[in-house]
Amino acid sequence: MDPAKRARVEAWLQYGEDLGIGPYFRDRAVTPGNDGASPALGPAPLSQGFAANAAAPPSTTPGRAFALGASNLMPPVALGAAEPSLFEIASRIEGDTLERIREDIGADCARCKLSKARKNIVFGVGNPKADLVFIGEGPGHDEDVQGEPFVGRAGKLLTQMIEAMGLRREDVYICNVVKCRPPENRLPEKDEIATCSPFLLRQIAVIQPKVLCALGACAAQTLLQTTQGISRFRGEWFDMLGAKFIATYHPAYLLRNPSAKGEVWKDLQKIMTVLGLQPRRR
Asked: What's the confidence (pLDDT) of residue 41?
C-alpha cells in the first residue's frame, strides 16, 4: 500500500491501541460476529421550487443500482481483505446508541482543530429509527450557535424539501460529516473528516436507515471515498452500509442556483419511490 493511502487509513482507525477504547469509543465492547457547512448563501428566495413541484408524482424507476467500489469510483478504504472496515467495527459495538456516541464525542471534544473556534458540537437531530437520513458537510454559523444541524436559510429549504416529500422534519434524521463548524463555513479538510467521520458511521450503524441521502459533494465524496465531482454520480443509487445511498445538491447550492431545484426534486422522487411515500398535497 502506498504511504498516502496508508496514512489515510490509519487516520480513520486512530482510536487507541485496543479496539474497545480510545478517542472514538469509551468502554465499548466490540463483539465479533454481532451484526446486530455550507458556502455563503445568496439572496435567492426560499419559496421557489419544492412546494410548487410537490404535486408531481414520484418517479417509478429509482435509478440504476451501483455497488460501492464500482469501477467509476475509488474502492472503500481498508487495510486489507482480512481487516474489518471501520463501519464493520462500528456495527458490532454491542448496545451502541446515539446517546452513547454523543457521550463518546464529549462536550469538550478537542480531537481536531475545528474545536478551537466552535461554540457548540452539532451532533444530529431527528428520529433515531428513521428510514431516511440526510447528511451534510458541517455546521454553519446558525447551527454552531443553536447546536442543531440545518437551522439556517439552507436548513429552512431542507425542511421544505422534506415536507414536499410528505414527511416532517422529525420523521427523518439529519446530521453532518463533521460536528463542529469549519471557520468561515469553509469545506472540512481531510484530517478533520478523517477524525470526525467515524462518529457519523456509528450513527448510521445505530439508526440503520433504508436510505442515506448525501447533501452536497463533501458528504457524498466522504461516503463514496471518491474525488469525482457530484455531477458525475448525483441521482444514482449505490448500495452502502446496509442502505440505499443517493447524493444530491446541497440546499445552500440551491439558494444560489434555484434552477437546480428541479433536478433535486427528481432525486427526492427516487427516494420517495423506495420508501413508498406520496408528495404533500397543497
From this structure: 30
Which helix (H) or strand (E) element contains residue 143? Answer: helix 141-146
Please tell me the total count of domains within the chain. Answer: 1
Q: Please report whether residue 244 resides in a domain.
A: yes
Residue 251 sits in a domain of what CATH number?
Answer: 3.40.470.10
What residues make up the domain containing 248? Answer: 3-275
Question: What CA–CA distance (Å, rounded) separates 12 from 17?
Answer: 13
Burial of 76 (0-12, 13-18, 19+ CB in 10 A): middle
Q: Does residue 282 form part of some domain? A: no
- Other Cβ atoms within 10 Å of 243 Cβ, number: 20
What is the pTM assigned to this prediction?
0.76
Q: Three-state DSSP class for 211?
A: strand
Q: What is the pLDDT of residues 65-109, one digit of tens each?
A: 433 333 333 333 333 445 566 667 766 778 999 999 999 999 999
Q: Say how far apart CA 110 and CA 103 lie, in whole Å.
A: 14
